[in-house]
Amino acid sequence: AAGTLARSAAQAAGRLLTRPPVGLGDVVPAPASVRPQPAADFVLPADAAVRVSADADAREVAGHLAELLRPATGYPLPVADLPPAPGPLQLTLSAAAPRGPAATVSGDAEGYRLDVDPDAVRITAGTATGLFHGVQTLRQLLPVAVESRTPVAQRWVVPGGTIVDRPRFPYRGAMLDVARHFFGVEDVCRVIDHLARYKLNHLHLHLTDDQGWRIAVDSWPRLATVGGRTAVGGGPGGWYTAADYRRIVAYAARRHVTVVPEVDLPGHTNAALVAYPELAPGRVAPPPYTGTEVGFSYVDPTDERTYDFVADVLGEVAALTPGPWLHIGGDEAYKVKGAAYTGFVERTQRIVAGLGRTVVGWHQIAPAGQVDGRVLQWWGTDGDDPTVAEAVRRGARVILSPGNHAYLDMKYAPDTPIGHDWAGLIDVHRAYHWDPATHLTGVPAEAVLGVEAPLWTESVTSLAEIEFLFFPRLPALAEVAWSAPSTRSWTGFRERLAGHGPRWRTAGIAFHPSPEIPWP
Ligand code: TNX
To answer: Signal sequence: where (predicted)?
Structure first.
């Protein structure tokens, strides 16, 4: 008996010594269900292939997994079809796999199942998007060194057990303002990588504003060549050619992220007016604007030429954009009041509908008439908004971007070197601690399409500054959007998130080492 005891103690000690560094539950955003199986850890063999169902989109996901794993492991990880040989890494498309919420954006399902035992890691999903999310989970379950860009000698262990997961809301996004300061294609692609890591599936690009116009439009070429030359503080500006924009869209699509382009109308249009004074009230070109005030500029809503401009621009942007959404802005048009404003928005909404796309607008467009399926992006700071609640009763849906929880341009603390504070300070707890289903009075969970974290860039001039404001709040907001309330808690979140600091450091991602998180 003593021998047996000693043997089992030794076995237990052996298990302890080889416990994987990551727990199955250490995933952000929190999965719907996690069942660890401690004696069932998996170690990636050097000769593993990624085996995948014979489907083009699923093969892309397998290729993506292999690309994630190759630099740090140094393993060849060829991608091969499944069947015949199952092998240690399996990505399977299956109609019976867990699906996403009933009313997903594209009718797509986003859920997945991950099974880890000593023989294999198996990801099963109804769609390639589900497989992709499963791959992001697997990435987080591997040791931190998986983030290294160069080979590391490691036991690539994955903790045993089963995760079954699906998102709470179909729309989970972030916005990047490329108008106040311009960010090139490489920076935007890196932002898309950050979204994909945390299962965010929409990138909203704020393409136009007073300080710059950032997308080439063939029928109105001076918008970019003249309107694109400025930025806040006199910076160099810049704009995307159609080819640049297509590269962003394609890069996003491979990461199951949909691009939502915004052309902000009728206000926030000084750059357009500099390029085309005929759109300005009085036909007089304003001086270029490089400050940070809002609400002074507008295209003339009483002139037919304005609607030619709107139709041409939205038509060209729609032609470059495969996703269903066109964002028409609509915020802070303080000089276009009452019926002039709602009339302008209603005509613009009809133009978008005529292009076969769904209108998204900042919640200021709420008083305009309903058009099928339109979406209001709410950025208020007080959850009582009767105008938005009334628009929801008339059929509008809502994306929640509460200024005092989701605005990534707000400072973390009084001494944060960049950012704003008009909506208050947003530490990680504040970003995390709210519920989209009950946030707005009179807006039931069924009307909430999802959550978006906007980053305005008046004070942001580099990728490192974007990352500093994103991390660690973007993962907090991703969890608000993805995870069921029953799986969420601040104490659990801060502990799960802590392990991501070393990952970001290894991946060269800048972040704010917030004192709220018990970083290792
Ligand atoms: C308000 S929020 C704006 C933006 C500014 C931002 C700064 C919204 C729809 N409009 O024009 O960049 O505040 O936080």
So the answer is: none
